[in-house]
Every structure is written in structure tokens, then in C-alpha cells.
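Form 7-S
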Amino acid sequence: MGYLLMTFALVGLDQLLKVWVRASLTANDLVEVIPNLIHLTYQENRGISFSLLSQMPESLRQPSLAGISALVIMGLSGYLAKQWSQLDPWEKLGYHLILAGALGNLIDRTFRGSVTDYMYFHFYQTSFFVNNLADDLISIGFVVVLLHSFRQRHGR
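Output:
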């Protein structure tokens, strides 16, 4: 129950941050958070990570991306329900972080037609990417599951 509560709390936080960004920033805004590393900005990403597939026709892109996201969420939820008793706390944490991120971005994609991105990562003049909390939750969850799997296989 605690993991599920955490998941919904993170989805709620993700959505609140996106609402705040849409209400407070414009596409040209850059608000410094950490000098020469992180700024806040506002972008609508119609594709997936790094704006991949954003040029795909709208009539194909939206149903495809929302459908794939929904299938991943259902598959992961089914896996968690079936395997719950065999998973250790680190696996549960990692998978629930992934689930929270996927749900956060699916909500955007379903109700807005795009995902709101706002964290601009760069190092001085070298730009890396713009993403959101949901993207970070997916990435962190994946790393947690991967590191746990590595530790289990190598007995550490």
C-alpha cells in the first residue's frame, strides 16, 4: 500500500509542477536554478524522449504513443501484482518510480496531446536536454532496478 501511495503522490507532484510551469513560464523564459547547469523553461514535447517521433503525423502519433504508454503501464502493473511477494524493496521502489513517471506523462499525452517539459540541463554553453519530473522518475527507477539486478547477479 505504501508504494502505491508513493506512486500516486509522485504523479500528483508531477502534475502540479506541470500546471505551475504552464501558468508561470513561457517558451522563451529561462529561470536559473543552478548556475550553468539547470534552468527552468517551458516546452511542449509532442514526441517521446529527445522529441523523437515529434514529426510523425498527429493522427498516428497521439494514439500510438498513448497506446504504447498504456500497454507498458498495464504490463508493469500486471507484473507487479503477480510478482509482488518475490520482489524485494529496491525492486518495488524502482518499478513504482517507473510506473509513476509513465502515468504522469500518459496523463499529459492523453489530456493535452503533448508532454510538458521544463527542466533544461546544460553545462555552460553545451545543451543536453529538457525534461520533466516524470522523465526523471522513469530514469531513476530504471537505474534502481538495473543496479539491483546487477548486485543480485554478482552477489553484492
